[in-house]
Design goal:
The structure holds two protein chains of two kinds. Chain A is of the alpha/beta class. Chain A has nine helices and ten strands. Chain A is 37% helix and 21% strand. In chain A, strands 1, 2, 3, 4, 5, 6, 7, 8, 9 and 10 form a ten-stranded mixed sheet that branches. In chain A, strand 1, helix 2 and strand 2 form a beta-alpha-beta unit. In chain A, helix 2 packs antiparallel against helix 9. The radius of gyration of chain A is 22 Å and the shape is globular. Chain B is mainly α. In chain B, helix 6 crosses helix 8 and helix 10 packs antiparallel against helix 13. The two termini of chain B are 29 Å apart. The chains are: A alpha/beta, B mainly alpha. The interface between A and B is large, with 43 and 44 residues.
Amino acid sequence: MRSRPTRVATLSLLTAFTLLLTPAAAGARSLLLSGSTSMYPLVTQIAALYHKETHQPTPRVGQGTSGAGIDEVAAGRVDIADVSRDPIIGQDPKGLVFTKIARDALCVITNSSNHLTNLSQQSVEQIFTGQIRSWSEVPGATVSGPIDLYDRVSSSGTQDAFEDIFLGETLKIAPSASQLETEGGMRQAIIGDKNGIGFASFDFIGGTNAVGYQGIPCTLPNAKSGQYEGVRNFWMVTKGDPKGAAAKFIDWIINRHNTAVEKIVATEWIPVY
Amino acid sequence: MDTGLLKKAPPTRRRGSSDRRTELLLGALAVGVLALIGLLLVTVLVKAWPSFSHNGYIKWFFPGGDVDTQLSAIENARPGSGNALYHLRAWPLLWATFLTTGLAVLFGLVLSTLSAIFIVEFAPRAMQRVLDPVVRLLAGVPSVIYGLIGVLALAPWIEEHLISEQRKESVTYVVQLTGTNLGLAVLILTVMITPIMVAISTSALASVPSAWTEGSAALGVNRWRTIWRVSLRTARPAIIAGAVLATGRALGEAIMLSLVAGGRSFAPNLLDGLTVLFEPARPAAATLLTYIDGISDPYLAHALYAIGAVLLVSCGLLSLAAWAAKQPLKRYGIRT
C-alpha cells in the first residue's frame, strides 16, 4: 500500500502536469507572432480585426527586433515573424519564406525645436556617417552645437532598411551614435534632445520634426505616390511556406478583396495589394 | 538518528520509513539544484571558451577598438572570414561595469550606513515603524521602473540643463554626450541599491547587544563615539556583507542600465574631469541585453556567453566574499 506523503506528492505532480498541458491540448491555439517593433502597431490592429471578422482566436503579437523575430521563427518558437527589412541572403537562416504585407515610410527625425525641412542625399550621408558633427554645417538647421546621432541596435530591421535605402550598400552609420532598442526609445530620445537626429517609421514620428529627403517632405501622400523614396517593406516571415492557421491569417491579410485590412494599412502605411 | 528513533518508538515504524522517503526526495531535489547550477556554469564556460581562446585569453580583457563595432562585425561576419568572427576587446564593458557598480556601491555604503544609524539610534519609535517597511518596499521596486523615470524624466533634463554646448564640443570627435550617461546610471543605481544596504545594516545595528552600548555609555563615552566605536564596529561585517549583496545586484542589473547608461559601449575617460560623468558607459549586463536578439548567430553567441561568463564568475566570487565577510559576526554570537 502506498504511504500518504507519496500519494500526495504524486497527486500534486499530476495536477501540475495537467495544468501545464491544458493550453497545448486545447484545439484552437492563438497564433504567435514576434519581431519588429515598427510593425507592432499595424500588426496588432490587423490581428484584432482578424478576430472580429473571422472569429478565429486573436493572434498574439510580441515585440523584439526583426532579427529576434527571424531567430524565433527559425527556431519554431513563434508561427510568424514580423520583419521590417528585406531578406539578407547568406545571413538569414535557410528555408524562411517572406510575404510582403505592406510598405512603410522611413523618416529622418529631429527634435521639434529644429525646423530642418530637407536633407539632400549628400547631407544625409555626411551626417549619419559622422563626417559632419555640427549643426552649423547643416543648411536649414535651426539649432546650433554638435549633432547628437541616434541609431538603432544592429538586430533592428529599421536600422538595416535605413542603411540600405538612405546610405546605400557600402556606407554604415557612425559607431559614435547612441543605440536604441525600440522605435519608441528612438522617438523618446529625439524628443528629449534638441541636438538629436535619428530615423523612425512614419507611425512613430509624433512629437518630432520629420525631415524631407531629397527635396520631398516625409508625408504619407508623398510616400503613397512613390515620390518619397525612403520607403521600405514590411514582411511576415514563416519557416517554409505558411501552413495551417498561419497560412489562413496571411492569406486573409494579402487577399486582394479584403478592403478592411487595406483601410487599416492606409491610415499610417502604404498598402501593397 | 533514524535508527535511534525506530528503536525507541516501534509503532511509528511505517511513518519513519515514509519520513525517510520524503527525506530522500528532498535530498534528491537539493542535489538536483546543485547539479543544475553546475551544469549552468559548465555550459556557459564551454560556450564562452572560443571567444576567450581566439582572442588570446588575457587580451580579451584588454582595451582595443570599439566594442559595438566588433560585436556588429561578429554578428554580420560570414563563416570563413577569419578573425572578425571572434575579435573582441571587452575592456570598455568591464570598465563601465566597474565604474557604475563601484561608484554606486561607494555612495550607497555611506548613505546607507548613515541612514541605518539614524533609523536604529535616533529615529523615534513611530518613525521607525514607518521607515522600516518603506525601506523594504523600496528595496523591492523593479529596476525597470527606475529606468523609466531615468529615461523619461531625468535624461531630458540633464541633456537640457547640465550639459553645456562647450562641454559637448570639447569631446565631439571622441564621443557624443547625451542625457543618458555614466552620471545618471550611477545616480539611479545608487538609489536602487541603497535600500538593500539600509535594510541589512539596520537589522545588524539593531542586533548589537544593548549591554555593550549601555556599558560604553556607562563608562562616560558620548553617544556618537559609542555608535562609531561599538555599534558600527560590531555590525561592520554585516554592513560589508550588505554592500557585497548590493554589488551583486548592481553587477547583474541590465534593463535599467541599458535604458539610462547611454546606448554605447564607451570606456569613460577619467582624465576628462567632470565631463566623464556625461560620457556614455554601457556595462556588461546591459550589453548582453542589447545584443541578445542576435544570439542565434553562433559566433555572436560565443562573445555574449563570454561576457556572461565574466559576470557569472564575478557574482560567484562576490557570494564567497559575502560569506567570508559574515564569518566574524558569528564570533560575537550575532546572526543577521
